[in-house]
Fold each of these.
Amino acid sequence: MKRSNWRTILVIFLVLGGVGYLIFSGVSETGMYYRTVSEVLDQSKTLDNGPVRISGEVVDNTIHYNQGDMILTFAIRDPEDNSKTIKAVYKGVAPDAFKADVEVVLEGKYDRAKNTFDTTLLLAKCPSKYVAEDGSL
Amino acid sequence: MVSIGNYSQLLALFFSLTTIALLLTGIMKNDFRFIMSGRRALVTVAFFTSTASIALVYLFFTNNFQVEYVASYSNRALPLFYKATAFWAGQKGSLLFWAWILSLFSAVVVYNTRDEIDSKATPYIYTVLAATLVFFLALITFVTNPFDLLRFIPPDGKGLNPMLQNPGMIFHPPTLFLGYVGFTIPFAYAIAAMASGNLDESWLKKTRVWNILAWVFLTIGILLGGQWAYVELGWGGYWAWDPVENASFIPWLVATAFIHTAIIQERRNIMKVWNMTLILLTFVLSLFGTYLVRSGILQSVHDFGATGLGGYFLVFMGVVLIGGFSLIASSYRKLRSEKVLESYLSRESTFLFNNVILLALAFSTLFGTLFPLISEAVTGNKITVSMPFFNRVNTPLFLALLLVTGLCPLIGWRKASADNLKKNFMLPFLAMIAGTIILLVAGIREFYPLVAFSLCIFVAVTILREFWTGAKARGKLKGEPLIVAFPRLLWRMRRRYGGFIAHLGLVLMVIGITGSNAYKLENQATLTKGQTLNVGAYSLRYDRIGKWREWNREVYAATLSVFKNGTSLGTIRPEKRFYVNAQQPTTEVSLRSTLLEDLYVTMPAIGRNWDITLKVMVNPLLQWVWIGGFTMVAGGLIAIIPGRKRRVGSNDIL
């Protein structure tokens, strides 16, 4: 009885340890800071220059898609502070929901020298609910 | 109709509260008549939720756009079928739908328990169901009412998001809800067992069909969601570990664990506390799933817009958790098993490991989903984890789960002997080694795919051998040829073999997931007419493009000739659609599926001079994800086909 108890505890401990290790290493190797546009621009806040995830709104009249080499460029602004913008470059095709003023999530690296964001992943929020232009609903 | 809807909801709420009052009085006074009235009141709730639901659908049919919910999810151009199903397109309707299904289920429970009214536990079952109904009905009556009116009458509604105008998407939410709501019943039985002190395993026996049925619905819901994502979102995958997907997957994992240990409790009368805990968690996670999808707390990509519902759900979940765990704590002494696990080399222990792994999967998925919130609370920095994290953490766990699935039928109950092990392990083990060598020769060198495919062979052989020996034994006994003996065996022992079929489905699904993840090919390019794009063995030639108008949309369709290794396979036609009064186009995938691979083509952009941007993918073995998934569903259904009343303690539980 005693021995089997110890054995059970040991097995559970091993399993928990294994799962804990998987989660811990998973977070440290694949985790990404999620920042606002203002935070990315504020150098003191982002010391490292690793991959980062940012969200912002697509600025009107900045979307440009070169179909030949499939390069999409656009600017995003901080919803809290419209003066803060970043230019994003994405090789690939925009998702259907992508358009001016829509909120997007980008993953990639920020190049401080050029103030451009090299985007590896572009997600647009899909509006399950349409909001009327005048916001009446 | 609006007032019929409002009054119906209000009366449903009133009768739910009446049910609780009558039952509690009956329990306290030990008076049978109150309990009988309580039963009737509970059935009445189902009547009023039905009239409310009919009223809402009627408002959709008659284009009553003064109703805010109708204006938000329908318009004149919407086809009738989608008008009916817009009922559950948004939050308010979903909550009414939830209450409606739960009240119908409750009415079924009332009918099923007609011979058990004198049992002490029965009134408690009704009380828990009525209390859950009160929560949902109070929400739609006072907080987020689907019958709320606008102060003006808009000429037309906003319509249904085109992405949701897809038959699969129509059945995805209700099947998920049927699953979520279904788990309320075993939860109610478990709480009733503890509250009344009737702690034998009879509650498990009575809810077995509910458990598996709820699990089947949840499985179908998740599968339909995956299929919808695959054909509608156009990124070529079916599962992204998005918070909304995880919200349905986490309760599924815990429910799956519960189904397995319920078998152990029925058979060996151990793990009683554990089962109570699992069903409690399944129910809370079902609520949590609804809450996560509808609250927008996680800023998921398909966020439903933040609403003030979060607080109410959190409070309700808190009440359920605290109440549930205090009941478990107070019944702990009675629930504790006299028996213990006798050996690690026993079938029971494979069930234990199955549970540990499933819960580890549930925990890592939950942890990853909530990690942005956790990290922000702890460090002040929001850190997100996405697909790579989940794949990294969950893949080894899934493979371990697969291994346990294969080991289970090889090991006897209680304590396996060395002889028995040697005899059982030989064939599957050799088959696996042979399979691994063949895979290596075929050029599969990556670690995970190799392990996954080898384990699939191992598990498949153990299951098929189980079928074979069973059929052979029956054939001998009854003098039937195998072809007759096998289906009859399946029918006679469907509980056992339904489970095996579900496991076989899991194997097929793993084959599909592994193939489509590890060996997918992708290419994208912009083509002018006549140009060709190559992906793997396929080449696609851009022939022409057309444009026309269909009732509520404008369609652009490119026609491409498909060749594989130079042989013509005909044409495919990816589309781009522009819906009337939708603010974005939709990209319609063109798919050419075979059992071997899918050719997946989208046309995300059309240029001014009719140049098109194409995105082409080859997804090997992808169809096996769905075949496997629906095989799991079939296995679950086979296991609960009702039969003649069985002798208690008969040996076909497993």
Note: The CA atoms of residues 97 and 128 of chain A lie 11 Å apart.
Amino acid sequence: MSADAEQRTIRCLIAKVGLDGHDRGAHVIARAFRDAGFEVIYSGLHRAPAEIVQAAVQEDVDVIGISILSGAHNTLVPKIVDGLKEYDAFEDTLILVGGIIPDEDREQLKEMGVAEVFGPGTPMQETIDFVRENAPER
Amino acid sequence: MSQAELDLVEDLLGGSHRALARAITKIENRSPGYRDIVSALHEHAGSAEVIGITGSPGAGKSTLVDKLVKRYRDRGETVGVIAVDPSSPYTGGAVLGDRIRMASNVGDMDVFFRSMSARGRLGGLSTATSDAVTALDAFGKDRVVIETVGAGQNEIDIVRTADSVVVLVQPGSGDDVQMLKAGILEIGDVFVVNKADMDGTARTVAELEEMIHLRSNPRKNLDTGHHRVDEAQGASVVNGEQEEEAATWTPEVVETVATSGDGIDDLAESLAAHRTFLEESGRLREKAQTRYAEEIRRLVQSDLSDLVEREFDARGGVDAFAAAVADRETDPYTVADEVVAPVRACLEETDDG
């Protein structure tokens, strides 16, 4: 495990986008990812999709984890996806969504390019393993 | 250089943010080919003004950087920022949290903000950071700001890759003995007392000024190296006193409240004054040359140590030697001699030829 981390450090952006002001979950994920040996960039609260795109491009992250509790995922996530495409960063960035996402919206998000949706109660290890297995080869 | 690297360099020079980001990643990861990339970028770099900012955790560095960058942007300059944060010694993981405070510049792609983690490397981090500066410089940034926690020797090395070094302290950060201690207080060209709306600001400013006053005098008398160098080169520095006077920078102390932006103009002016001093005194060139000398040494040493590792592997690994030493069959000096012998022989052969 640690040998892998030495070979290539996985960089993640944990993004809070939109108006919801609750980021305890994002903090917990950031810490768990850090303890898994990832480099985590946390966006802070109330970010616009363009800011998330800017951060993802400049930091050249492998993974974006978007945390949304407000129900605005159907408007915000597509904007992030489009922004990444604009900078040729969509193809090799793994996009994850976490938070409160109704089942009927999951498929739609995945069609948009989200790799996986992690709802409340997902074991942390499951998320970490998913990132390890699916972080894009570069 | 492979086609992929050529393309990356070309895209970077052409203004692609993605290419710049990817090049820095390759530099950070020490990916194959990163050296070719830095080599190719070197000739395009050299015009950016590089500022290093350090200070203890919580002194307000990120907020200050945000406001300083905003000021440069208002003047139409483009800026690159490299923020270095520590990584966990146990897992290698890190939370890179300085980006949050870049609130004044969000959505402005002409501010290229990049977080770097220490990744547990000591010497290598400063090389990686200065290579990343080269990339931002070649990309065409007018200013590059390096921000790091001034906790240890390694962090000091990083800010010293800058032309001007700003050291941040907050009011009431320790008694006057702290000011006597060696470390980050010795490397500042500009000192900033941030959070200057707090109690104790006047005292901290006075202590810093006293320290600067004390340091400038003894150093002038001790620092005779320049005279000797100048004399050796035949320069006319017989009456060196005035020349020395002119070529000495006395660090300035600036008060700021980064959250409100108070004092940022003073800081920018102080940095501009230091820049002018560096250019007019010829120190800029001198500093760059010293830096490159250190960098060349570091690179050669690291290459040599790779060769040595290979030599160990070829001879069955360092553990076998260690076991033999522990068994008193041989001793560390003999082993070292033995391992280095082929290299020494090679060098002596070339000398003879």
Note: Strands of chain A lie at 11-16, 39-42, 63-68, 94-99, 116-118.
Amino acid sequence: MELNIFHMYPDLLNLYGDIGNVTCLKKRCEWRGIKINIVDFSLGNEADINCADILFMGGGSDRGQNIVYSHFLKYKNDVSNAIEDSSVFLAICGGYQLLGESYIDANGMKIPGLGVFDYTTESEEKRLIGNIIIKNKLGLNPKTIVGFENHGGRTYHDYNALGSVVVGNGNNGKDELEGMIYKNCLGTYLHGPLLPKNPHLADHIILTALKRKYDIKSLDVINDDLEYAAHEKVFELYTNGKV
Amino acid sequence: MTPSILFGKITKFALNIVGMTGTALPGKVAMIINPDLLLILNSRCKRKVIITGTNGKTTTNNLINHILNSEYEDILSNLMGANMPQGVASAFLNNTKKVYDWGIFEVDEGSFPDVVKYIEPDYVVITNFFRDQLDRFGEIENTSNIVYEAIKPLNTTLILNADDPMVSNFKDLGKKNVYYGVEQTKFSSKTQRVVESRFCPICSNNLEYEYFNYGQLGRYKCNSCDFKNPNYNYRVSEIEYHDDSYHFKVDNSKGQTNDVIFRYDGIYNAYNCCAAIAFSIEAGLDMEQVVERIDNFDYKLGRMENFEFQDKIVKIVLVKNPIGLSEVIKSISNDKRKKSLLFILNDNPADGTDVSWIWDANVEAINDIDNLTSIHCSGIRANDIALRIKYSESSKNNMEINDNMEESIENVLREDVEIIYILPTYTAVFLTRDYIMGHLNHTNARIPRIKELIKSKIGT
């Protein structure tokens, strides 16, 4: 068995340890004897998006995102088809915003997104920053997903959310929802190394990609004591008695 | 004595009673009573230099102090690394005189505008801009922009790192510029995993690098416009490492060359030395005097500080961002002695509340360290750093995880090794240091723990 992970624009979109997610997927596959090919997709290193089993896109600075936007627009149909075809896509922060219809910056200027999805993101001056804990709507056990968020944008959409906010802000700080789910595409504001401390989510991504490609039903069990200890610690430190 | 100074002193006295040396709190109190305290300080220093940037501020500050001390007696400085406005004010409360020859202050990038509102620096030294504390500053471009805008109205000389494109573009401000940098040496590399900014700050196109020395510091040029490293006024070259020291040459644009010895690890220190040399010569000292002072420089306060404990050496190295951690791991791999590591990862406000940065560091380089007996992980986020190490595939080493810092320090001191490296984040540095000093002096080591607790609450 093998999987192709397309790391989208790793040189331009890697603000808060996003690379940690790719490292996590790679190691968790290798520990189970699943071969992983990582394709760094970027300017000057374009590859056929049809070959991707998992697409990963991180966040970036405004400047990084602008460069990506003008290049990525050429691949809008390919990305759209891949998502409709149930490819796994994990889009974080800037990547999540970029897949939407538009981004309205703090001055009211409308910056078009790729338009793969019809949601919009509006920027506000106050950034939403801090530890975040959500309850996932993917049916994963444990229910909690822990992470850190740091974004000026507020995203509003009618898709299913990735989770409900327990601690933190999520999509917009108002409706207590975080992220989005469409087929096997996940968007989220939980930036950077989301997957290492959430091995159930990491394995969900791996298993979904493998199911689509091969006829398998489950993954080999590996020792996740350390992963869940880190998960529990965040929960213990930042729930403040909630839940 | 003005009321603000008086109240600051009272706070300081009270903190001393409870066993705290309190680096920033007295200043905080005094600033609340009189936010213009920094103005008084400004008028009492004949000449002033501010050191800002992401990495190397404290080292450069300590070096400059040490060098200038050979010429001047009355120097006011925040040597303890408390680099927000209240930290600068605290330095003054520790030492109130009518007149100082020099005020030497390290100032955090985010606090820079607040400090220069009151203090008019004759010189500003800018070390570098790396990703650090993004939970405070948002993005790295914002960080450099905050400093850039604040320098605009100042009448000052800029001492600029020519090798950092994010710093050298400060030449556009049209101030008097002095450039320092480090030539390609055998420590340079052709590739760099952690590159903070690969875009031209002028036209946003890709920068092309001939070599990297450290992060995005190296020889760069833009393919679209004429942006490239400015010519050096002060230049380090021919770096060698032997006898536990770095040996290199430094020259200035007048053609003088001197040999320098610096007794601490890390290629980033070549930049810190060069910045300190450039500033000191510009400030009127002569080269021989400066070089001699660097030779006999001793680190203070947890920046590569060395202790002898029983038959072992204990080194404390502050780590706080991906580039710093990557470089420290790289320099430890130059040390062939039998060793143990202790990482202490905290997420208090002064450490940065976001610990994501550990995933951007090249922790995989732990695999290049020889004779590594054990790795200990501690601090509030002990599990996070342990997890990072697990995914670097260095799990073949013995790993001990314990979020109780005292116990972790005790345990690592018991290891049968020649040298122990302790890598704490900011708020853990002081505890680590006090605790080890406590061991050396056989005094009660519980006091530091109380200090640590208070410190984490007030976020100094």
Note: Residues 236 and 250 of chain B are 4 Å apart (CA to CA).
Amino acid sequence: MEIQPILAALRKHKIPAALIVLEIALACAVLCNAVFMIGQRISEIHLPNAIDEQGVADIRVMGTDPKLATDDVPRNLAALRQIPGVTAAAVINTMPLTNNGWNSNVATQPQDVMEKDSPNVATYFFTSGGEQALGLRLLRGRFFTSEEFADSKLASNYIPTAHVMLITQSLADRLWPGQDALGKQVWVGKEIHFTVVGIIADVLRPNQNGEGLAAFHWAMFLPLSPGPGGFLNDYVVRTSPQDRARVIDAAKQKLAALSPNAVVRGISFTDVRDKFFATDRSMIWMLVLVCVVMLAVTAFGIVGLTSFWVGQRRRQIGIRRALGATRAHILQYFQTENFLLSTAGVATGMLLAFGINLYLMQHYQLDRMPWYYLPVSAIALWILGQLAVLGPALRAANVPPVVATRSV
Amino acid sequence: MFGYYLDLAIRSFKRNRVLTALMVLALGLGIGASITTLTVLKLLSGDPLPQKSARLFTAEIDPLPAQGYVPGQTKPPWGNLMPYTDAMNLLRAHRAERQAAMALTQAKVTPARAGEHPFFSDAVMTTADFFAMFDAPFEYGSGWNAQSDDDSARVAVIAGFLNDKLFGGKNSVGQVIRINDHDYRVVGVLKDWSPQPRFYAVDLGGRSYGNGDAVFLPLKSARADDMDPQNVSCWQTADIQHLETAPCVFVSVWVELKHASDAAAYQTFLSNYVQQQISLGRFQRPEVVFPNLMKFLALEQVVPDDARLQTNLAFGFLLICIVNTVGLLLAKCLRRSREIGVRRALGATRRAIFAQFMVESGMVGIAGGVLGLVFAELGLWAIRHQPAQYAHLAHLDVSMFFATFVIALIASLIAGLLPAWRACVVAPAPQLKSV
């Protein structure tokens, strides 16, 4: 295929050609960034969380007398464990993804706790059996012993008096990069520190805490025995996915009967997770919708402009056909022309996409777009262009040679 | 002439139905998306108290230790949250027309009727000036007075929707309601009151949008009944069972000044107060911030990033639609070169041709606007079914209704400029020759 005559023809139609290039460039720029944002949200929604998400339910009992918690908690737990299908139950201060965060700044040295860059970590404390109830996965070290649970009461600063803790793999990597975290000390205050006895697979924290995805897995777990205090509200109950709905109902009824003054709510963890990411999910759908509609509008624009200049060039096409050009030649001509325009558009669009990404990085804490988004959306627009031009090009190919003789 | 152009435009639309439909559809989609996102953005970034937001200020001080402090650069890290002691000192100083301290909590409300279950409601622990300062309208009764604050009186103001639920909407002033297993006497019932965004809750751990709070209690009495603030931050390990004396922040202070111009004087007073605390050894950092309501909302970036991102995206999309419309209009009007040639030969001026095509693109714009309105209503309907807190508030208002047509007309006239210009420079002679 000769490119020279196509370029010559395009030079005669500068404005329509420039419009197609501009349209493709804009579509490319928006598409790159929108697809990138979709990808980021999807990976956020699918962040791993090493608890038994399918089997865990959270029964929350609120509004009981905090002074009676020492007796209430064991009684409630015993009642929950009697429900058929319940394999484990424990009390925890808060659950992942509930937006009810207990956070502390921690450090590997006591003097560093107040430093500005000391990592902010989600703190979980649970009673005996909590690791089974949540389904935590131990990577190295060990879980807590029954003595460690029994010796740990809640102090007036709302930190258990334990001396041991479990931390997530991500937190271990953040605090001691490239080193073994087992046996090391984590400082929570100038006087308070814990020994790391176990490293567990990454568990999500209750909320993101504005430090980006890297910090979403920074969590530590402390042992606790039931004692006075109004905050031990969340009963973690573990069961099989098929028993879950029935167990939640039974648990709510039992605990409500035991504490008639309280407000009892039950929710499966999968619902907790769905709720937490609901806005992200709707954002994804909205971005997908925009991409689809935008591509459609761009395609219609290409169809419109190309059919216009096919119409304009009917005579020229007729002459070419009369001079021996086959239908395939004519088809090829318009497809090559569109390919050239798309290429120019995509090249401009990539620069634009990069610029938009820089702007978003500055204003919306977005990451840098990986390079492979550019070729992928380039290919998408090439295909779109070829498909859009197909109709008008076929119509052009069907122009009979006789047109040339008729209208001259 | 205008009527004639209109007639010509309609004829031209009839001749190229598909092309016209494509243009109107593209414009309509772009405008629908922009109006939908703009409506949401406007809802989110609105002024919750327009009549006095310029005179409402909040005090931000920095109680953190000296470690990590960079003079002139370190801003108060916790927004307008401050320790209880300082909030009370500022209130007692009485340097503003009105001043109130506040924190959010969850109140367990137990209905008096037997057999009804207790439930939790969003509650505000605050001081007497709160209602007058924020122009909260009363249906029955009024707020409590400063004396009730000092005496830790068990009095309460409740929202209209809670009054409906507990007392069937009747005047419940003087009735008793049971909150966290203590009896509080109702002194006032609010009319529907839910400023959007709920500015006073922003740093207190509350939702920024959505329904208003249900229960309002004196700070001191609520704290005496063990009601915990929603958001507590401490700068060292602390005895948080005694929050009032702990090294923690959990209340915010808002003040109403007589004139917005009094802000400088109050800020000086605030700085002096902090200096005094530094000399007492309580504080180390002298920086204070004293933003008015709208500035505070901007500082705290209350509008969700997603909403702003969506608006940017929608206008990017509108731009694509406009470029698309330019292309299609151009295609249409170049196709009519002969008609233009005839008109020019019959004496029409370039200006007349230009006007004719601008009228035509303007009509595309109006049609696009009407379609855009349909899409915007659809978009807002979809948003109302989203899980966001502000979702149910997303409605098209009168100003956005008109904005739709203004944007549509501007967009289409911009899109029409190039084609109209190309049309009016068409030389008549060659066109006539080829007829």
Note: Chain B touches chain A through 57 residues (CB under 8 Å).
